[in-house]
Design brief:
Protein name: SET domain-containing protein
GO molecular function, one term: double-stranded DNA binding
Structural class: mainly beta
CATH architecture of the largest domain: Beta Complex
Shape: globular
CATH superfamily of the largest domain: SET domain
CATH class of the largest domain: Mainly Beta
Pfam family, one: SET
InterPro entries: H3K9_HMTase_SUVAR3-9, Pre-SET_dom, PUA-like_sf, SET_dom, SET_dom_sf, SRA-YDG_sf, SRA_YDG
Strand content: 25-35%
Subcellular location: Chromosome; Nucleus
Helix content: under 10%
Number of helices: 5
Low-confidence stretches: 5-22, 24-36
Radius of gyration: 25 Å
CATH topology of the largest domain: Beta-clip-like
Largest sheet: 6 strands, mixed
Mean pLDDT: 84
């Protein structure tokens, strides 16, 4: 059953002079297995085989071993960034560029770091922080058409699932099953607990986010944690204005973001329901025209520091849970792909290309 290892390309390895004239290039993956249920593979770059030899393995048989040399002029190894981010989480003060330990001032469950090792700019500290939108005192229907009776958590066929087209918006790990125009999460009239799988975005930031100074784009956002594809990141929040209010505010030159300007990147998110048992076709709820703007000139959340990209790794998903006006949904940010630590988070603001 077991035998010595046979190298299938031995003819390329001998004579040794001939082997070293070949340009074999391989890539190495550092395996991080603590993220269940599967392993996470981190790309570490391109490597060149510089030597090979036979050795006795753990099973007592001969195995081929290789000495690799990393090719020059490559970005820093992914495994090194993983380890660096882990050390930064354990000891935030190990970096001289840490400006503030918590930009949210306790409004997020996990502190939001402020980091700048490029210059003396402290701009984000001049803004008030909000974890959720500040709605106008009038003009917004805050009523509720009802809630579910799921004491231990939502189940298929319950009131909230019917509002979402008959299926769960998220899987049991909190991963977005599929993008849709609008998600109805459980609200204040629902009997389910805060741990219900249909309250994903209401539980706040779960990753160690950091607002940092970039060389090209001012302030940006990155995470010290791995963010898995489909996971909730944070909310894009500020002072919510009606369209009429937004027109007046824009005349003052204030920073204003219209909810309707975000492209429907949720349509690009893969349909995970294809691999989930008993998941059928979705009759998704519709989204009304978005009639509001968000003033971020004085008050903002960490989501407002994400930079623009035409190839973003974060999408905007519209969510309702605390009111019934479908023209004023929450702007929730989800990962479009697996995002490793220290990689900048970006969204598409709907800006013209070029």
């Amino acid at each position: 059953m077991f035998s010595d290892s046979i190298c299938s390309f031995t003819h390329k390895l001998t004579p040794r002079e001939h082997f070293f004239h070949l340009p074999p290039v391989h890539f190495s993956c550092y395996v991080l297995s603590i993220f269940l249920p599967g392993k996470v593979y981190i790309y570490d770059g391109l490597y060149r085989i510089c030597d090979t030899w036979l050795d006795i393995g753990k099973s007592g048989f001969s195995v081929y071993k290789y000495r690799l040399v990393r090719s020059p002029q490559q970005p820093e190894m992914g495994s090194s960034l993983f380890k660096l981010a882990g050390n930064m989480k354990l000891n935030p003060n190990c970096r001289s560029g840490l400006v503030h330990f918590d930009l949210s001032n306790g409004k997020e469950k996990i502190p939001v770091y402020l980091f700048n090792d490029l210059d003396s700019d402290r701009g984000p500290m001049s803004y008030s922080y909000t974890a959720s939108p500040i709605y106008p005192a009038y003009g917004l229907w805050m009523g509720n058409s009802g809630g579910c009776d799921c004491v231990s958590g939502c189940s298929l066929g319950c009131f909230c699932m019917r509002r979402n087209g008959g299926d769960f918006p998220y899987d049991r790990e909190g991963v977005l099953v599929r993008g849709r125009p609008l998600i109805y999460e459980c609200g204040s009239l629902c009997r389910c607990p805060p741990t219900c799988r249909n309250r994903v975005t209401q539980t706040g930031v779960k990753h160690q986010l950091e607002v940092f100074r970039t060389r090209e784009s001012g302030w940006g956002v990155r995470s010290l944690d791995l963010i898995k594809a489909g996971k909730f990141i944070c909310e894009f929040a500020g002072v919510v204005l009606t369209r009429q209010q937004a027109v007046l505010v824009s005349m003052n030159g204030d920073n204003l973001i219209y909810a309707a300007q975000f492209p429907h990147r949720w349509m690009e998110w893969g349909n995970v329901s294809n691999i989930i048992p008993h998941s059928g076709q979705l009759d998704a709820p519709c989204l009304s025209p978005l009639e509001y703007g968000i003033d971020v000139s004085r008050v903002r959340s960490v989501g407002c520091y994400l930079n623009h990209s035409f190839v973003p790794n974060v999408l905007v998903q519209f969510v309702l849970y605390d009111h019934e006006n479908i023209s004023y949904p929450h702007l929730m940010l989800f990962a479009m792909e697996n995002i490793p630590p220290m990689r900048e988070l970006t969204i598409d603001y709907g800006l013209a290309n070029g």
